[in-house]
Amino acid sequence: MSIFKGPVDSNDPDRTAIPEEEDAVLEKVAKKVVNWRMSTPAIVFLESVKPLNYIGAQTMVFFEPIVQSLFNIRDYDNFRMAMERRENVENLLQKIEKYDAVLFDREKAIKRFMKAERKKWKWYQRYLRIFPPRTQLPEELTGPLFPEDKKEKKGEKK
């Protein structure tokens, strides 16, 4: 027996899927948030304003003429339409958390690599930090976090 009426499960087959362009914009926003390392403030903000998603989307309509002069209006429109639906706020949160986990794994790998490198150093380099040798991180740890985005940008420039 449940207190709530109606579907509580998010895997409802009657739900319509997100349009592809809105999903692409949500992916882009989530990656930008993670690249700027603003995952935690973004998650806190989105969780706190989740009930006001429609008002926020209408506020975006109000600011559209100003934003239109500065940014890509097609992506802005897609993002505004995506934010009008409450389930997309949750989708955006999940995407931010997914990409934040990727960033966390990379930082963990960098710490593991540096710990292994420090074991090779001499005692005064390791403990006193006197004349520490320069270490070069491997390519997979220094490259872009989302390499597929770099390929897309190169393809757009041609």
Brief description of this entry?
The chain is mostly helical and 158 residues long. It has helices at 20-35, 39-49, 53-62, 64-68, 73-84, 86-118, 123-127, 139-142, 147-157.
What does this structure look like?
The chain is mainly alpha-helical and 158 residues long. Helices cover 68% and strands 0% of the residues. The chain contains nine helices and no strands. Helix 2 runs antiparallel to helix 6. The protein is elongated and about 60 Å long. The chain starts with 19 loop residues before the first helix and ends with a helix.
What is this structure's SSE topology?
Layout: H1 20-35, H2 39-49, H3 53-62, H4 64-68, H5 73-84, H6 86-118, H7 123-127, H8 139-142, H9 147-157
Helix pairs in contact: 1-5, 1-6, 2-6, 3-5
Topology as H/E string? HHHHHHHHH
- SS field, number of helical segments: 9
Shape: elongated
Q: What is the alpha-carbon Rg in Å?
A: 22 Å
User: Class by helix and strand content?
Assistant: mainly alpha
Task: Name the average pLDDT.
Answer: 84
Keywords:
9 helices, mainly alpha, 158 residues
